[in-house]
Design brief:
322 residues; alpha/beta; Rossmann fold; 13 helices
Length: 322
């Protein structure tokens, strides 16, 4: 089968572009011919997977016009779902044969009339054949923050929380991500000058970001909302403990009772978690055990099974010539 994935171009690699490339790999393993386009693509295709309901809307319309017999899937991103679906996004859902969400609580954001078309496909993590090699303890306790700097990510929260730690703490924050909103240029500069625990690494490619996660003692995710929280899967696979703000993605993927959750924007709560993680190895083990119980849903095998099931719904018989 020929599959086209439309993923709107971004100025820097982001979660959506990573998802698109990952799906190319996974769908290719299933035996399909897959390509990515940043927009409209009039080449042959049996199926369009449109990543981002709003930004891919025009490409979806054009595909419908030029491929009348083909099927369409719309994959909802975090900016589609939160704070709410736009009229353009809803028009894309109307056109779609199926809708994909990356975590279960996203289903509640979809209007009733479209929910029967929705399927959950959790993103799986890049393979880690063995737990990551952690930093030398003499270098301190390393907390990584992996995400571009924009308001929805609340990107400086971990640095601010680190300022409140006791003087004896050896915790340091390594922050990977591009500055996507100008206001954070000054904040990063201010934090690096005034906070010896904080270091900004800039934008990293996917392999380097994965290595950072695997080598860190802890990952902190502080967003108000996430579409699928793929960085959580990478941390779980690398056996790096997680502390995270409580939102739909984190509670759906880690569980409502996950012990490493804090209230979004609450610096003091995060400081308490950071201090406990640094000082209590048994708590870090508890976080790993709690997260591991959710990893099966995010395995590559489960992801491929879910894609296979969705494709079988759309194509009970292989397309002509297959």
């Amino acid at each position: 089968m020929e599959i086209l994935i439309v993923s709107p171009a971004a100025s820097v690699p982001n979660g959506n572009s990573h998802t698109a490339k990952w799906w190319v790999s996974e769908l290719s393993i299933l035996g399909h011919k897959v390509r990515i386009s940043a927009g409209a693509d009039d080449g042959p295709a049996d199926l369009l997977i449109a990543l981002h309901a709003e930004k891919s809307h025009e490409a979806l319309i054009r595909f419908h016009t030029n491929h009348e017999e083909a099927s369409t899937v719309v994959a909802l991103t975090g900016t589609d779902l939160y704070p709410e679906l736009s009229s353009t996004s809803l028009a894309s859902l109307e056109m779609a044969d199926r809708i994909v969400v990356l975590q279960g609580k996203a289903l509640a954001r979809i209007p009733d009339e479209y929910r029967s078309k929705a399927r959950i496909i959790h993103l799986s993590a890049s393979p880690h054949p063995s737990p990551g090699e952690k930093e030398d303890p003499q270098d301190g306790f390393t907390v990584c923050v992996v995400g571009h700097l924009r308001t929805v990510k609340d990107p400086m929260r971990t640095a601010r929380a680190a300022r409140l730690l006791p003087p004896g703490s050896s915790l340091r924050v390594l922050h990977a991500g591009a500055i996507l909103e100008e206001k954070f240029e000054e904040e990063v500069e201010h934090e690096e000058k005034g906070n010896p625990r904080y270091r900004w690494l800039g934008s990293l490619d996917q392999d380097d970001a994965d290595r950072l996660i695997a080598s860190s003692d802890l990952l902190a995710l502080t967003s108000s909302q996430e579409g699928g929280g793929c960085v959580l899967n990478e941390a779980i696979a690398a056996r790096t403990p997680i502390v995270a703000s409580r939102n739909d993605a984190t509670t759906s993927l880690l569980g409502d009772d996950y012990p490493g959750l804090f209230t979004f924007g609450e610096t003091g709560e995060l400081t308490t978690l950071l201090h406990r993680c640094e000082s209590d190895p048994s708590f870090r083990s508890q976080l790993l055990e709690a997260a591991q119980s959710h990893l099966d849903a995010c395995s590559a095998t489960r992801e491929r099974e879910n894609w296979s099931a969705l494709l079988h719904e759309l194509f009970p018989k292989p397309p002509a010539g297959q």
